[in-house]
Amino acid sequence: MISRERAAARMVELLDAPFLRAVTEPARLAVLRALLVRGPSDVGEIAESLPQHRSVISRHLQTLEEVGVVRGRRDGRRHVY
Fold first, then answer.
1. Torsion of CA 24, 70, 44, 27, to 10 degrees
2. What is the DSSP-derived secondary structure letter of residue 68?
3. Which of 27, 39, 53, 69 would be 64's cystine partner, CB 3.0–4.6 Å?
């Protein structure tokens, strides 16, 4: 049986995980919602429905991509997520 202290330490590790930190940011959740509703989109298309500037949306998408929540691909000059 695992001790309470070890269990608590493991939970703290999980709460500090990059994935969880990435998806608990409200603005990133809004980006994910926009992608789910719109389907594959570039930064400009996502930004149309959100109050943040394109550069902020781009940084959020980069963070989400780094932890494996979204994938991006090049389509000419566009980066589609």
1. 0
2. T
3. 69
Q: Residue 81 — very low, low, confident or very high, per pLDDT cuts 50/70/90?
A: very high
- Six-digit token string for 63: 């963070």
Q: Is 73 helix (H, G, I), strand (E, B) or coil?
A: strand
Strand partners, 79: 74
Is 60 within 8 Å of 34 (Cβ atoms)? no
Q: What tokens were used for 20? A: 């969880």
d(CA 9, CA 19) in angstroms, rounded, equals 18
pTM score, two decimals?
Answer: 0.80
pLDDT in tens, 25-75: 999 999 999 999 999 999 999 999 999 999 999 999 999 999 999 999 999
Output the six-digit token pair for 57: 């949306």
Residue 79 parent element (H or E): strand 78-80
